[in-house]
Amino acid sequence: MNAARLLPVLLLAACGEDAPPPPAAPAALQPGLYEVRSEVTGIRAMDDGTPNPILKQGQTATTRVCIAGATATGMPAPALAGLAAQGCQSSGVLFPAGRIAGQLQCRPPKLGGEMNISLNGTHGATDYRLEGDAATVLPTPGDITATLRVAGRRVGDCPAGAAS
After folding, report:
1. Are 134 and 116 within 8 A, CB to CB?
2. How many alpha carbons lie under 13 Å from residue 84 in its C-beta half-sphere?
3. pLDDT, mean of residues 148-152
4. DSSP calls for 59-111
5. Residue pair 43/64 in contact by the 8 Å Cβ criterion
6. What gap in Å lies between CA 163 and CA 112, rounded to an integer?
7. What do you get for the CA distance between the two ends of the chain, in Å?
8. Spatial separation of the C-alpha atoms in residues 79 and 38, rounded to whole Å
9. pLDDT, tens only, 5-64
10. How many domains in the chain?
């Protein structure tokens, strides 16, 4: 059999029923009450001052936040990171194809300056995982950079009257 006769057979076989189905679109993050656990995985002093003690290596925190939901164009990231009470504003938080990416600018009451946080991660319908880098901007020496890990999981519905 020559190659010209074999080509149609190969093309038909390639289009057969054994072809894998197209990948499913990632599920949107469902609204609800989420338990958010954060951990400081690394700290580094950025100048000769005494590092500001707002974050410590190994520090963990667990909080519950109400997340109203997310779309491909974003959502309130301070709630997502468990930082709603830290004076944080978000910019450019996006949810493309099961991923999360964004920036936070925070003014924690106990810091005396700013903390800028970059977040990247993934999400399913009821959970998410983020890795982050944080850097302080203080009016005095003591700036730090930190690496963070954040994980959230849906634990129920938001209480009546709760907002994200």
Report:
1. yes
2. 16
3. 92
4. -EEEEEEEE---BTTB--HHHHTT-GGGTEEEEEEE-GGGEEEEEEEE--TTT
5. no
6. 27
7. 68
8. 12
9. 444 443 444 455 555 665 565 677 888 899 999 999 999 999 988 887 778 889 898 989
10. 1
- Boundaries of domain holding 105: 27-156
92: tokens are: 């450019």
Residue 6 in any domain: the answer is no
> Does residue 73 register a pLDDT over 80?
no
With respect to residue 9, please indicate whether it lies within any of the assigned structural domains: no
pTM of the entire predicted model: 0.73
Exposed/middle/buried for residue 4 (C-beta within 10 Å: 0-12, 13-18, 19+): exposed
- What is the largest distance, in Å, between two alpha-carbon atoms of the chain? 82
SS3 label, residue 39: strand
Q: pLDDT by residue (tens digit) across 105-141?
A: 888 877 888 989 898 999 888 999 999 999 999 888 8
Tokens at 130, concatenated? 């983020």
Whether residue 151 lies inside any domain: the answer is: yes
Cβ(117)–Cβ(130) under 8 Å? no
Q: Is residue 78 part of a domain?
A: yes
pLDDT of residue 161: 74
Q: Both tokens of residue 123?
A: 């999400």
- For residue 35, what is the domain's CATH number? 2.40.128
The residues that bridge with 127 in the sheet, in sequence order, are 153
